[in-house]
Design goal:
Length: 364
């Protein structure tokens, strides 16, 4: 069947193995039967990125999303075959015809390892990769009172941090950070190089540069021990230390500089649309939040990911309608010029993740 005959494309679950545990809340959100936490705490959405799991890899294509067509095609192949349909007439020349961003749902039952991600310059020099990993967290829910760790509040000297990693002095690592409480609706950008960890009991949407690069400072998590090559991306510790930002950042500074403030774009009697991520980070990712109790509309013309956070309604385009309920994720092709959210049965909330802004050419 031609993709042009369809509207929004539902994305089924795409679980990815990770070294930490979680996933119970995520699967309940997705409408799956009750399950225990395990090593599949992430669901990669509209992904064209391979997971880097080494000996724990579950399949050759792990991380790559598939679309619901007769062939169960890989999304990355579908994008290349019909770029105008997926990206829209004004976006079809996107570099390499891939989204340039990785979107996830993430649900932690334990604290993740302290870690940091490389920037693009480091990735090009040491990893033969065009992208690093600046990321963004949008908190969807928490199991109890929850918190995260972002940047050093009591920064150690570089060699002291190296010694903590070599000797696995986790208590000393913890002493370098202060807990930052989070609640649903909070949104933080984590620039590449920033040491961080997600605390236990956090359910979030995560947006990031399209890579799986990470330096893990703790070798053991949830009873699983990783080899050095899995912790240091196949590099040595001394090289990886060059990723870390060792500057001190107070919690107040973190909230002032890294926490994002919603910007209202549209308000009617039935709904409100907000831009959640500031323009300084639009070269990495964009995210809008729409919520209300009535009908809503928004322009198309570009590839978007819709996450139905709360409520149910009908999503319509070009005379086609499809029911949508909370927990569903849908890919909205750019060939559609406008979208409508109609006949909502109660209060509702959706997220619209958009592609990064392509910087102007140096030749222009």
């Amino acid at each position: 069947m031609s993709r042009e005959l369809l509207g929004a494309v539902e994305l089924g679950p795409n679980p990815v193995w990770r070294s930490y545990c979680g996933g119970r809340v995520l699967r309940a959100f997705r409408g799956q039967s009750a399950t225990a936490d395990d090593h599949f705490p992430e669901d990669w959405l509209a992904s064209t990125v391979l997971a880097r799991n080494g000996k724990n890899s579950q399949r050759a294509s792990e991380g790559l999303s598939r679309i619901s067509d007769a062939d169960n095609s890989l999304l990355v192949e579908a994008l290349k075959q019909q770029p105008r349909f997926w990206f829209g007439p004004n976006q079809a020349s996107r570099l390499e015809l891939v989204p340039g961003v990785l979107w996830k749902l993430l649900d932690s039952s334990v604290r993740l390892q302290f870690q940091a991600h490389p920037n693009a310059e480091f990735a090009r020099r040491h990893l033969n990769s065009p992208a690093g990993k600046t990321e963004c967290w949008y908190i969807l829910g928490t199991r109890t009172e929850a918190h995260v760790y972002i940047a050093f509040q009591q920064p150690p000297p570089r060699e002291a941090w190296a010694r903590m990693i070599r000797e696995q002095c986790v208590d000393k690592m913890l002493a370098c950070f202060e807990k930052i409480p989070v609640q649903p609706g909070d949104c933080y950008v984590i620039p590449a190089g920033t040491p961080h960890a997600i605390g236990a009991g956090v359910f979030m949407m995560e947006l990031m540069e399209p890579t799986d690069w990470v330096v893990r400072c703790e070798t053991t998590n949830a009873g699983l021990t990783l080899p050095p090559e899995a912790c240091f991306m196949g590099l040595d510790l001394e090289t990886c230390l060059g990723i870390f930002d060792f500057r001190a950042h107070s919690v107040e500074e973190i909230r002032r500089t890294f926490q994002q403030s919603p910007r209202e774009l549209v308000r009617t009697t039935g709904y409100c649309e907000e831009e959640l991520i500031g323009s300084a980070y639009h070269r990495y990712f964009r995210l809008h939040r729409l919520r209300g109790h009535g009908d809503a509309t928004w322009p198309g013309g570009e590839l978007m990911l819709l996450i139905a956070v709360k409520g149910q309604a009908e999503l319509s385009c070009d005379g086609q309608r499809q029911p949508v309920r909370s927990g569903q994720t849908l890919l909205l092709p750019g060939a559609v010029s406008s979208w409508a959210w109609e006949k909502s049965a109660s209060d509702w909330e959706i997220l619209l993740a958009k592609l990064p802004v392509i910087p102007p050419s140096s030749d222009s």
